[in-house]
Amino acid sequence: FQKVELKVGKILSAEKVPDTDKLLKLSVDMGEEVPRQIVSGISLYFPECEVLIGKKCMFVANLEPRMIRGLESNGMILAVSDIDGKFSLLEPNSDILTGATAK
Questions:
Q1: Closest residue by Cα to residue 24 from 64, 62, 63, 57
Q2: Single pTM value for the model
Q3: Mean pLDDT for each consecutive 10-residue tract of the chain (103 residues)?
């Protein structure tokens, strides 16, 4: 677990990946020089993906890049769900700075 780098990222843009039911392409500011592109299978929970723009969420930042439907994904958004189908993104307090890392 100590090898996983968790970072706060702010979602700058969110759009559905064409010809898929579940995928969203996110542009995420993690306090780095260039925003990261992250592809995530959360579209079913956010039919209006624009509601994600501006949200600060927790991300795994040190994964190897992965190609998903021809798009490079450079991280993973963290979320939880329960047996009743309730779903939630993991969101830090609003006063936590973008790019902050979990200790």
A1: 57
A2: 0.93
A3: 89 96 97 97 94 96 95 96 92 92 85
